[in-house]
Specification:
Largest sheet: none
Distance between the termini: 29 Å
Number of helices: 7
Shape: globular
Order of helices and strands: HHHHHHH
Number of strands: 0
CATH architecture: Up-down Bundle
Number of domains: 1
Amino acid sequence: AMDGSPPPASPAGLSAFVAVSQLLGLTLLVTTGAWLGRYRGGVAWHSPLQFNAHPLCMVLGMVFLQGDALLVYRVFRHEAKRSTKALHALLHGLALVIALVGIIAVFESHRSKGIPNMYSLHSWCGMAAFVLYLLQWLLGCGFFLFPGASFSLRGQYKPQHIFFGIALFVLSIASCLLGITEMLLFKISDTYSHLVPEGVLANTLGVMLVAFGLVVGYVLTREEWKRPPLAEELALSMDFKTLTDGESPGGGS
């Protein structure tokens, strides 16, 4: 605070739900690594194991980091808005880079093994999620991070940006669930129905993906947990509105 007093405490329950989300997210990564390491031979780039980089990168980028990027405005409630925006964009950008590595891994693996690309529902949903996520990131940077867009234009686009942010997060998790099912049916179709350990572990990973999505979604949709505007942000907003509406700075009331 400007007067040196400590910032207001976070709303009741918010810190607990954020902590649960991070615990689930880290468990997702550990479980994915355990599945690939214990049952699929691990991960290596220039080898038959290159494909295994795909699920690891997608869970890390399109789920965990994307979820954390969405939570930035709930966690950093009293920091400068521009710093929070930059972190939000940085996490999304990092998620895109990691996801791109995962996509390259699966295409190169398919090419080396003579497997066709882009024929399954998983691949369609996954590629749609990545392309739309990239577009969402570019539009978000253009409207909110870099100067140029007018205040009124930002205000008109903001609801769409928020909606598609959550929708793409849901689509990313759904694509991961489709990918887990597809991988299990390809690899252990003969024993999957017998509740073999690999199938149970992968199913558990799927349940945790859903749980992570639900916790993040709950935090995002709690109205009282939204980031309150700082005093300087409210003043700037009023200045922009005055300029946009064509009112004189001292007029009106």
